[in-house]
Amino acid sequence: MFLTKQHLVMARTFGVAIVVTVGLASCATYKDEFAGINSRLDQLDTKVQGAAQSAESANQSAQQANQRLDQIEGRVQQLEAKPSGRQPRG
Length: 90
Known about the structure:
By secondary structure, this protein is mainly alpha-helical. It has one helix spanning 5-81. The N and C termini lie far apart (125 Å). The mean pLDDT is 84.
């Protein structure tokens, strides 16, 4: 049985079809892997946003504490500079 030009074209077409089918089948597995990776990235994004909100809250608390310290600093300096009119106990 001799291979004719038509048989060679048919075999080549069939081979390309097999390669394309295998390639597309592998894309489906990559699609599942990408879905898993995207899910993990979404979870990490949620955690990062929560951490950023906690950091912002801590920053605001620190700023409020610094403001309170600034408010009492003048009074502390006055008390340290002014000699006490009281006699020490004992």
